[in-house]
Each structure stands twice: as structure tokens, then as C-alpha cells.
Amino acid sequence: MSNVVKVLKAEIARISKREAKSATQGIGKSTTWLRKVVADLKRRVVLLEKENKRLSSAMKKYQVEQLQKPDEETKKARLTSKGIRSLRNKLGLSQAGFAKLVGVTTHAVYLWENKEGALSLRDKTKAALLLIRGLGARQAKEKLAEAETKNRGVRASAHRTKKAR
């Protein structure tokens, strides 16, 4: 009797293994297919991110070039040392603060204020001065504070990377 039980158990095990194998056979194929699809999608995402980064940097360069192109107002504007001095006093800024706002050195502001007659400036600097002309004292100080906080963040991160080396 025990021989019949062993044979019966073996037959049941064999049939159940065959059924389980046939039931899970498609799952293995679909799993490998899905893994390949995921790997392909990851590669595509990496390529798209690189392309996006390249295009965004090109776009930033394009925007900077657009800002630097002088328009008619910039070419026609006549700036004098007296005008620079009165603008700086109107805004209530020091020479250093005014220089940061314009994007030049403090010494350049000093030279502008002490020069006689009309100033010959680069188009970029002239455009920055014309933009500042339209600001009030409060707005100018806000822009200056905003620029200083940005610079602090850049300096701190540069300092940290230097230390890490």
C-alpha cells in the first residue's frame, strides 16, 4: 500500500509542477520584456535631460545676447558725470552699492563722477544705467539686497567646494 501512495504522490507532484510551469511561463517573458523597456526608457530620459540642459544653457546665452544688444535709446542716451552723481544721490547709495547695482567696480563709479563732460561707456553698462534711472530709492535698495544675497550664496558654495578638496 505504501508503494501505491508513493507513486500517487510522485504523480501528483509531477502534474502540479507541469501546471505551475505552464502557468508562470508567460510571466518570465513579460518580466524580461518590461526590464528591457525600463532600461530603454532610462536611457532616453538621460539623453533628454542632457539635451534639455544644452538647450537651456543656449537659451540663457541667447537671452544675455538679447539684453546686450543696444537699442536706439541706449545709443542716443547722453550720460555725464553730474548725471551719474545726481542719480546715485537720488537713490541714496554709496559708490560701492551703486557699482554693484550697475555691475562695475567702485573705482569706475569714482572715475565717472570725477570726469568732465559726457561719458563714453559700453552699451551694456549704459543700458544698466538707463534701467537704474527708472528706479526709485526703495526699489534700488531692494535690488541691491537681492544681488548681495545671491552673491553670498555663490561665495559660500564656492568656499565649501574649495574646503572639500
Biggest sheet descriptor? none
**At CATH's second level, what is the architecture of the largest domain?**
Orthogonal Bundle
The helix/strand order is: HHHHHHH
And the CATH topology of the largest domain?
A: 434 Repressor (Amino-terminal Domain)
Mean pLDDT value: 83
Could you state the CATH homologous superfamily of the largest domain?
A: lambda repressor-like DNA-binding domains
> What gyration radius follows from the Cα positions, in whole Å?
36 Å
- Separation of termini? 80 Å
Specify the number of helices: 7
Strand content: under 5%
The proportion of residues forming helix, as a percent range, comes to over 70%
Query: Helix- and strand-based class?
Result: mainly alpha
3D structure, described in words:
This protein has 165 residues and is mainly alpha-helical. It has two domains: 41 residues; 89 residues, lambda repressor-like DNA-binding domains (434 Repressor (Amino-terminal Domain), Orthogonal Bundle), CATH 1.10.260.40. Helices cover 84% and strands 0% of the residues. The chain contains seven helices and no strands. Helix 4 crosses helix 5. The chain is rod-shaped, with a radius of gyration of 36 Å. The model has no long low-confidence stretch (mean pLDDT 83).
Short description:
The protein has 165 residues and is mainly alpha-helical. 84% of the residues lie in helices and 0% in strands.
Secondary structure elements and pairings:
Blueprint lengths: L1 H67 L3 H5 L4 H11 L3 H8 L3 H9 L8 H11 L3 H28 L1
Helix pairs in contact: 3-5, 4-5, 4-7
